[in-house]
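Example record for the data management plan.
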Amino acid sequence: MLKKQIKQPDIVHIFVDQWNARYLGCAGHPQVQTPNLDRLAGEGIRFENAYSPSPVCMAARVSLASGLHPHNHGFFFNYTDKLFPQELITLYKKVRDAGYETAKIGKYHFHSPKWGEDFEDYKDYYDSMGLDFAKETSTPYQGPCFNSEYTRWLKEHNYLDCFIKEIAHGFDKGQYLPQGSKLPPKMTPDGFVFHKTMQYLKDAPTDKPMFLTVSFPGPHTPIDAPGKYMTMYNPDDVVLPENFKSISSSHYKDVAELKQIIALYMGKITHLDDRIGQIIEALKKRGKWDNTVLIFTSDHGDFMGEHGLMSKSRFQDGSVRIPLIIRQGGSAGESGIINTSPVSLIDLYATIIDLAGGIMPDYCQVKSLIPIIHGKCESVNKAVVSEISENYNFNYMVRTDKWKWYIHNSNEALFDMLNDPWEKNNLAQDRKYVNTIVDMKMILLDFLMKNQLNKAAGYKNLFTRMNLQVPGSDREKVLLKKMQEVHDF
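Corresponding structural encoding:
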């Protein structure tokens, strides 16, 4: 059981992008090397069945920041021509109100800047969302399209032209082109986020608790593992996922190329694991490691050949399931805990505010994972839901401890996840499971009914708004007098 802290802990959230939950040594992957995350899981708790509220970057990230599901915040996909409303980004505000120094370094994806804009021009926006220290970078494919401290850093070290050419080549040949990177590891987008994180930790105040989000752009495409990580995994030795289907894909031409992609993907993952290990050492040097909560997770996954697919945006586990590890200070040396209950990325909203001792907003729609972390219960959710809008359809997934049901562009699926974790056998057309599907749809209906923002909250009727709550016999006189005052006679 993890130990509950009395003093407000430092909270460090390491947030990665497009990391398939199976690609951890501690999750049983036969090849990928993640010793630092494995050690972290051994000192804390790993949630085996954690899911994204939406299997796409922007929708998932603003859900975590706001505590709202996509159908409430309305950012269903990866592009919008408007800023996500800063008044809805309450996570950092609530934690700052609890007495924390708040900082976020790396990818945000709360809006889509216009071509040539500079992230430094959004300082007022960052401050209004509750961040004391803000440093934003973009997904690598968007990096050369904007100005940022990262592009200026590359230019200063004579690597900007190399970066631009690599990204342009990837745009032309496809984002899953297995090309590696000519940038040294420290000059990659992930290397820059690490660099800024180490700078921040060196100067961060120790007289108040810290909430730091380190948001790495990797292992999201491009498939460009740098330096030694480029050749760390031999493509010939790559073990394909158990549910791989040898079907045509627009992202790879044959199995040999898919293995090259996976080898480089694993290289990017091990690069990140090494950086995470260095961040952990820096946190230990701060002298507060025994009172530090470290959270590791991703916004969503990447198929990496599962079902013959790549990328995300769907509800199979390769896309929608996420890695989630929470290590609470004071628990080092204890055996790792694996929790198999259904949880959601958005549950971290309530969990982080709970850890900070903050006040949950009255509209909060999610459950804190603290009762599970402290061993008081095995589950806080009967089910979790994921949603995405695509091709003018609203698509939904429901995941319980045993079943996964989803509908995607009118295609329905049901899987027994206990006996079929690789989702090979779709039971949706089997009449034996009609009642199970009805039960899952009722969970979805209940979710949609209960998790709506109450726009009528605080409504007052006309008489109350006009202060006309007076005895009936006097109401007409009072009303006449107030109306005459309006018209000055």
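Summary line stored alongside the record: The chain has three domains: 10-382, 387-450, 459-489.
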